[in-house]
Write a structure and sequence with these properties.
Helix 3 packs parallel to helix 4. The protein has ten helices and seven strands. 39% of the residues lie in helices and 11% in strands. With 316 residues, the protein is an alpha/beta fold. Strands 3-2-1-4-5-6-7 form a seven-stranded parallel β-sheet, with helices on both faces. Keywords: Oxidoreductase.
Protein backbone atom coordinates (compact mmCIF):
# COMPACT_ATOMS: atom_id res chain seq x y z
CA UNK A 1 0.00 0.00 0.00
CA UNK A 2 1.36 3.40 -1.01
CA UNK A 3 2.11 5.86 1.80
CA UNK A 4 0.09 9.09 1.54
CA UNK A 5 2.24 11.93 0.26
CA UNK A 6 1.29 14.14 3.20
CA UNK A 7 3.21 11.82 5.51
CA UNK A 8 6.56 12.16 3.76
CA UNK A 9 6.53 15.35 1.66
CA UNK A 10 4.93 18.79 1.82
CA UNK A 11 3.13 20.43 -1.09
CA UNK A 12 5.93 22.99 -1.46
CA UNK A 13 7.71 21.15 -4.26
CA UNK A 14 6.67 20.75 -7.88
CA UNK A 15 6.35 17.31 -9.42
CA UNK A 16 9.12 16.31 -11.81
CA UNK A 17 11.73 18.34 -9.94
CA UNK A 18 14.22 15.46 -10.05
CA UNK A 19 13.23 13.76 -13.29
CA UNK A 20 16.08 11.68 -14.75
CA UNK A 21 18.12 11.97 -11.56
CA UNK A 22 19.49 9.08 -9.51
CA UNK A 23 19.97 9.01 -5.75
CA UNK A 24 22.18 6.51 -3.92
CA UNK A 25 21.45 6.07 -0.22
CA UNK A 26 23.10 3.99 2.50
CA UNK A 27 20.84 3.05 5.38
CA UNK A 28 18.00 3.53 2.93
CA UNK A 29 15.65 1.10 4.66
CA UNK A 30 15.69 3.16 7.86
CA UNK A 31 12.73 5.31 8.82
CA UNK A 32 14.38 8.66 8.12
CA UNK A 33 16.45 7.74 5.07
CA UNK A 34 13.58 5.90 3.39
CA UNK A 35 11.45 9.04 3.75
CA UNK A 36 14.22 11.15 2.21
CA UNK A 37 14.47 8.80 -0.76
CA UNK A 38 10.69 8.46 -1.05
CA UNK A 39 10.35 12.22 -1.34
CA UNK A 40 12.97 12.39 -4.09
CA UNK A 41 11.36 9.49 -5.95
CA UNK A 42 7.94 11.13 -5.74
CA UNK A 43 9.50 14.19 -7.40
CA UNK A 44 10.94 12.20 -10.29
CA UNK A 45 14.17 10.54 -9.18
CA UNK A 46 15.11 6.91 -9.45
CA UNK A 47 16.97 5.41 -6.53
CA UNK A 48 19.25 2.75 -5.15
CA UNK A 49 19.11 2.03 -1.43
CA UNK A 50 21.55 -0.26 0.37
CA UNK A 51 21.54 -1.92 3.77
CA UNK A 52 22.70 -4.94 5.78
CA UNK A 53 19.40 -6.83 5.88
CA UNK A 54 18.50 -8.22 2.46
CA UNK A 55 14.78 -8.76 3.04
CA UNK A 56 14.25 -5.42 4.79
CA UNK A 57 16.14 -3.46 2.13
CA UNK A 58 14.41 -5.09 -0.82
CA UNK A 59 11.01 -4.65 0.80
CA UNK A 60 11.73 -0.97 1.48
CA UNK A 61 12.75 -0.45 -2.14
CA UNK A 62 9.49 -1.94 -3.40
CA UNK A 63 7.53 0.25 -1.01
CA UNK A 64 9.40 3.44 -1.96
CA UNK A 65 8.76 2.72 -5.65
CA UNK A 66 5.02 3.15 -5.05
CA UNK A 67 5.62 6.88 -4.55
CA UNK A 68 5.54 7.42 -8.31
CA UNK A 69 4.21 5.29 -11.16
CA UNK A 70 7.11 4.01 -13.25
CA UNK A 71 9.74 4.73 -10.61
CA UNK A 72 12.83 2.53 -10.54
CA UNK A 73 14.06 1.78 -7.03
CA UNK A 74 16.71 -0.86 -6.43
CA UNK A 75 17.23 -2.38 -2.98
CA UNK A 76 20.63 -3.99 -2.37
CA UNK A 77 21.04 -5.91 0.86
CA UNK A 78 24.06 -7.61 2.44
CA UNK A 79 26.06 -4.39 2.06
CA UNK A 80 28.53 -3.61 4.83
CA UNK A 81 29.44 0.07 4.67
CA UNK A 82 32.53 -0.65 6.79
CA UNK A 83 34.02 -2.51 3.82
CA UNK A 84 34.98 -0.44 0.79
CA UNK A 85 34.60 -3.31 -1.64
CA UNK A 86 31.07 -3.99 -0.43
CA UNK A 87 29.97 -0.41 -1.03
CA UNK A 88 31.84 -0.26 -4.34
CA UNK A 89 29.98 -3.31 -5.58
CA UNK A 90 26.65 -1.67 -4.72
CA UNK A 91 27.67 1.57 -6.42
CA UNK A 92 28.73 -0.29 -9.55
CA UNK A 93 25.39 -2.12 -9.60
CA UNK A 94 23.50 1.14 -9.17
CA UNK A 95 25.28 2.84 -12.07
CA UNK A 96 24.89 -0.22 -14.30
CA UNK A 97 21.14 -0.37 -13.69
CA UNK A 98 20.26 3.33 -13.42
CA UNK A 99 23.01 4.98 -15.46
CA UNK A 100 24.40 7.54 -13.02
CA UNK A 101 24.52 8.86 -9.47
CA UNK A 102 23.52 12.50 -9.06
CA UNK A 103 22.72 12.62 -5.35
CA UNK A 104 24.08 10.70 -2.38
CA UNK A 105 22.67 10.32 1.12
CA UNK A 106 25.11 8.80 3.60
CA UNK A 107 22.72 7.60 6.25
CA UNK A 108 23.99 4.30 7.63
CA UNK A 109 24.45 4.55 11.41
CA UNK A 110 24.54 2.59 14.63
CA UNK A 111 23.27 3.57 18.05
CA UNK A 112 22.38 2.25 21.49
CA UNK A 113 22.39 3.55 25.05
CA UNK A 114 25.48 2.74 27.10
CA UNK A 115 27.61 4.49 29.68
CA UNK A 116 31.38 4.71 29.19
CA UNK A 117 31.74 2.01 31.85
CA UNK A 118 29.53 -0.31 29.79
CA UNK A 119 31.09 0.64 26.48
CA UNK A 120 33.83 -1.76 25.43
CA UNK A 121 36.50 -0.66 22.93
CA UNK A 122 34.94 -3.04 20.42
CA UNK A 123 31.48 -1.50 20.81
CA UNK A 124 32.93 1.99 20.48
CA UNK A 125 34.86 0.95 17.38
CA UNK A 126 31.76 -0.60 15.85
CA UNK A 127 29.86 2.69 15.93
CA UNK A 128 32.88 4.62 14.66
CA UNK A 129 33.29 2.16 11.81
CA UNK A 130 29.65 2.27 10.74
CA UNK A 131 29.21 6.03 11.03
CA UNK A 132 32.60 7.50 10.14
CA UNK A 133 34.30 4.85 8.03
CA UNK A 134 30.96 3.94 6.45
CA UNK A 135 30.36 7.57 5.47
CA UNK A 136 33.88 7.83 4.08
CA UNK A 137 33.49 4.64 2.04
CA UNK A 138 30.17 5.92 0.69
CA UNK A 139 31.83 9.19 -0.28
CA UNK A 140 34.91 7.54 -1.78
CA UNK A 141 32.97 5.19 -4.03
CA UNK A 142 30.45 7.74 -5.27
CA UNK A 143 32.70 10.77 -5.74
CA UNK A 144 33.60 10.08 -9.38
CA UNK A 145 29.91 10.04 -10.26
CA UNK A 146 29.13 13.11 -8.16
CA UNK A 147 31.90 15.04 -9.93
CA UNK A 148 30.59 13.89 -13.30
CA UNK A 149 27.04 14.92 -12.38
CA UNK A 150 28.17 18.28 -11.02
CA UNK A 151 29.96 18.99 -14.27
CA UNK A 152 26.80 18.25 -16.26
CA UNK A 153 24.52 20.34 -14.07
CA UNK A 154 26.27 23.64 -13.52
CA UNK A 155 24.68 26.89 -12.45
CA UNK A 156 25.53 29.73 -14.82
CA UNK A 157 27.59 32.14 -12.71
CA UNK A 158 26.45 35.16 -14.70
CA UNK A 159 22.73 34.57 -15.09
CA UNK A 160 22.41 32.27 -12.02
CA UNK A 161 20.24 30.03 -14.16
CA UNK A 162 20.50 26.32 -13.36
CA UNK A 163 21.28 23.78 -16.02
CA UNK A 164 18.23 22.93 -18.16
CA UNK A 165 18.80 19.36 -17.00
CA UNK A 166 18.46 20.34 -13.33
CA UNK A 167 20.83 19.85 -10.44
CA UNK A 168 23.38 17.19 -9.53
CA UNK A 169 26.65 16.44 -7.76
CA UNK A 170 25.37 16.77 -4.20
CA UNK A 171 25.86 14.73 -1.06
CA UNK A 172 24.12 14.86 2.30
CA UNK A 173 25.49 13.25 5.45
CA UNK A 174 22.86 12.38 8.02
CA UNK A 175 24.22 13.37 11.42
CA UNK A 176 22.70 14.30 14.80
CA UNK A 177 22.66 17.09 17.37
CA UNK A 178 23.82 14.97 20.32
CA UNK A 179 27.42 16.18 20.20
CA UNK A 180 26.50 19.88 20.31
CA UNK A 181 25.86 19.82 24.06
CA UNK A 182 26.54 16.12 24.70
CA UNK A 183 24.18 13.60 26.26
CA UNK A 184 24.79 10.89 28.84
CA UNK A 185 25.11 7.33 27.51
CA UNK A 186 25.84 8.61 23.98
CA UNK A 187 29.62 9.09 24.00
CA UNK A 188 30.17 6.73 21.06
CA UNK A 189 27.58 8.46 18.90
CA UNK A 190 28.76 11.95 19.84
CA UNK A 191 32.31 11.18 18.77
CA UNK A 192 31.19 9.44 15.58
CA UNK A 193 28.84 12.20 14.45
CA UNK A 194 31.45 14.87 15.13
CA UNK A 195 33.68 12.95 12.73
CA UNK A 196 30.94 12.74 10.11
CA UNK A 197 30.42 16.50 10.35
CA UNK A 198 34.14 17.17 9.87
CA UNK A 199 34.17 14.87 6.84
CA UNK A 200 31.34 16.76 5.18
CA UNK A 201 33.05 20.11 5.75
CA UNK A 202 36.24 18.82 4.15
CA UNK A 203 34.36 17.54 1.10
CA UNK A 204 32.79 20.96 0.61
CA UNK A 205 36.21 22.61 0.53
CA UNK A 206 38.06 20.05 -1.58
CA UNK A 207 35.36 19.31 -4.14
CA UNK A 208 33.53 22.64 -4.26
CA UNK A 209 35.80 23.79 -7.11
CA UNK A 210 34.52 20.81 -9.08
CA UNK A 211 30.91 21.79 -8.43
CA UNK A 212 30.09 19.24 -5.71
CA UNK A 213 28.17 20.45 -2.68
CA UNK A 214 28.37 18.69 0.68
CA UNK A 215 26.02 19.34 3.57
CA UNK A 216 24.76 17.79 6.78
CA UNK A 217 21.21 17.25 7.92
CA UNK A 218 21.06 16.88 11.69
CA UNK A 219 17.67 15.54 12.78
CA UNK A 220 16.43 16.18 16.28
CA UNK A 221 13.77 14.03 17.96
CA UNK A 222 11.76 12.59 15.06
CA UNK A 223 8.53 10.78 15.91
CA UNK A 224 8.02 7.08 15.16
CA UNK A 225 11.68 6.34 14.50
CA UNK A 226 13.82 3.58 15.95
CA UNK A 227 16.31 6.18 17.17
CA UNK A 228 13.75 7.99 19.29
CA UNK A 229 12.37 4.71 20.63
CA UNK A 230 15.86 3.72 21.76
CA UNK A 231 16.80 7.03 23.33
CA UNK A 232 13.58 8.08 24.99
CA UNK A 233 12.02 5.93 27.71
CA UNK A 234 8.30 5.44 27.10
CA UNK A 235 7.46 6.52 30.67
CA UNK A 236 8.81 10.02 29.95
CA UNK A 237 7.24 10.60 26.53
CA UNK A 238 4.67 13.16 27.67
CA UNK A 239 7.13 15.07 29.83
CA UNK A 240 9.72 15.21 27.07
CA UNK A 241 7.18 16.35 24.48
CA UNK A 242 6.18 19.29 26.68
CA UNK A 243 9.83 20.28 27.01
CA UNK A 244 10.20 20.83 23.26
CA UNK A 245 10.25 24.47 22.10
CA UNK A 246 7.57 23.79 19.48
CA UNK A 247 5.66 21.43 21.76
CA UNK A 248 5.99 18.45 19.43
CA UNK A 249 8.40 16.03 17.84
CA UNK A 250 9.56 16.38 14.28
CA UNK A 251 8.31 14.16 11.46
CA UNK A 252 10.05 12.27 8.71
CA UNK A 253 8.43 14.75 6.33
CA UNK A 254 10.46 17.53 7.93
CA UNK A 255 13.67 15.69 7.04
CA UNK A 256 12.50 14.85 3.52
CA UNK A 257 11.64 18.49 2.86
CA UNK A 258 15.09 19.57 4.06
CA UNK A 259 16.63 17.04 1.70
CA UNK A 260 14.69 18.35 -1.28
CA UNK A 261 15.71 21.91 -0.40
CA UNK A 262 19.42 21.00 -0.48
CA UNK A 263 19.22 18.92 -3.67
CA UNK A 264 17.00 21.33 -5.63
CA UNK A 265 17.91 24.70 -7.18
CA UNK A 266 17.16 26.26 -3.80
CA UNK A 267 20.35 24.69 -2.42
CA UNK A 268 22.69 25.60 -5.26
CA UNK A 269 24.82 27.93 -3.10
CA UNK A 270 24.53 26.00 0.14
CA UNK A 271 27.61 23.91 0.89
CA UNK A 272 29.71 23.08 3.93
CA UNK A 273 26.70 23.69 6.14
CA UNK A 274 24.71 21.88 8.79
CA UNK A 275 20.95 22.05 8.47
CA UNK A 276 19.57 21.27 11.91
CA UNK A 277 15.98 20.06 11.76
CA UNK A 278 14.96 19.82 15.39
CA UNK A 279 12.62 22.67 16.28
CA UNK A 280 15.38 24.23 18.43
CA UNK A 281 15.39 21.14 20.64
CA UNK A 282 19.17 20.96 21.08
CA UNK A 283 19.24 24.44 22.57
CA UNK A 284 17.34 23.13 25.57
CA UNK A 285 18.98 21.09 28.32
CA UNK A 286 20.18 17.62 27.36
CA UNK A 287 17.17 15.32 27.08
CA UNK A 288 16.32 11.86 25.92
CA UNK A 289 18.49 9.59 28.03
CA UNK A 290 18.35 12.07 30.89
CA UNK A 291 14.63 11.54 31.32
CA UNK A 292 12.58 8.89 33.08
CA UNK A 293 14.35 6.04 34.85
CA UNK A 294 17.70 7.23 33.45
CA UNK A 295 17.43 10.59 35.17
CA UNK A 296 20.74 12.46 35.29
CA UNK A 297 22.89 12.33 37.41
CA UNK A 298 21.16 9.88 39.76
CA UNK A 299 21.31 6.93 37.38
CA UNK A 300 25.00 7.46 36.65
CA UNK A 301 25.82 7.68 40.34
CA UNK A 302 23.94 4.44 41.00
CA UNK A 303 26.53 2.48 39.04
CA UNK A 304 23.77 0.45 37.35
CA UNK A 305 24.07 -0.62 33.74
CA UNK A 306 21.71 0.90 31.19
CA UNK A 307 18.96 -1.71 30.79
CA UNK A 308 17.67 -3.22 27.58
CA UNK A 309 20.62 -2.23 25.40
CA UNK A 310 19.87 -3.78 22.02
CA UNK A 311 22.40 -6.39 21.04
CA UNK A 312 23.91 -6.50 24.51
CA UNK A 313 24.64 -9.91 26.00
CA UNK A 314 26.65 -9.53 29.17
CA UNK A 315 28.95 -6.67 28.36
CA UNK A 316 29.43 -4.43 25.35
Amino acid sequence: MSLPKSQYLSNTWKDGLFTNKVVFCTGGAGTICSAQVRGLVHLGADACIVGRNVEKTEKAARDIATARPGAKVIGIGAVDVRKLESVQSAVDHCVKELGAIDFVIAGAAGNFLASINQLSPNAFKSVMDIDVLGSYNTLKTTLPYLVESANKHKVDSKTLNPSPAGTGGRIIFVSATIHYRTMPFQTHVSVAKAGVDALSHSVAIEFGPLGVTSNIIAPGPIASTEGLDRLLPSDSLEEYTKSQPLGRFGSIRDIADATVFLFADSGSYVSGQTLVVDGASWRMSAGGAAYGKLNYPDFLLSGDAVPNVKGQKSKL
